[in-house]
Amino acid sequence: MAAAVLVAAFLQLIAPEAGRIAPRWLFPLVELVLLGVLMIRDPGRIDARGRGSRRATIALIGVMTVATLAGIVVLVVDIIDTNIRTVDANALLGRGAALWVSNVITFSFWFWILDRGGPAERAARSGVAPSFAFPENATPELVSADWMPRYHDYLYLSFTNATAFSPTDTLPLQAWAKMAMMAESVLSLVTAILVIARAINVLPGPLL
User: Fold this and answer.
1) Where are the domains of the chain?
2) Measured between alpha carbons, how far is 49 from 122 in angstroms, rounded to an integer?
3) Distance CA 49, CA 117 (A)
4) Is there a smaller number of Cβ atoms within 10 Å at the N or the C end of the chain?
């Protein structure tokens, strides 16, 4: 998880300057501070069981969500701007790609922290009902008896949902999971399809 947070913060810093939320260091700084707090509380996998750790984790994910949504809003405004020549195609593609990856990471965290009560509750086998049906649940003979989803499973779930705009091998079981996957698909559609279409329109014409 820590590596994913660092990737998201790094993308926010290196995204093309034009249209980026100012000051550009604000969200990455807050994210890194919250990540530092979590690592101090739980130097292992950042999944310590307790209200304090869970609240700090949710705060971190919330900041990442706000940063991603705000970036997408600014990007959409630039896309629908009637003065098309003021929008650079490379900037659109760069910002769109960074936001798309950030969207995948952000939703993977929400899936990870909310499914079955979170990573600590899953590790403790607290018995909270699952929100997702992973392929390992349908084929228990192919995995160890104590298998539980880990962060990379939720990252893969988020990535496939963002690329296919629908569930693939993992199915949502609860209402919040369905709505979250739908929201991620919508944001992915905006940052992928609309950005690419607009970038093609603002690319310079053929030289011939």
Assistant:
1) 2-202
2) 10
3) 10
4) C
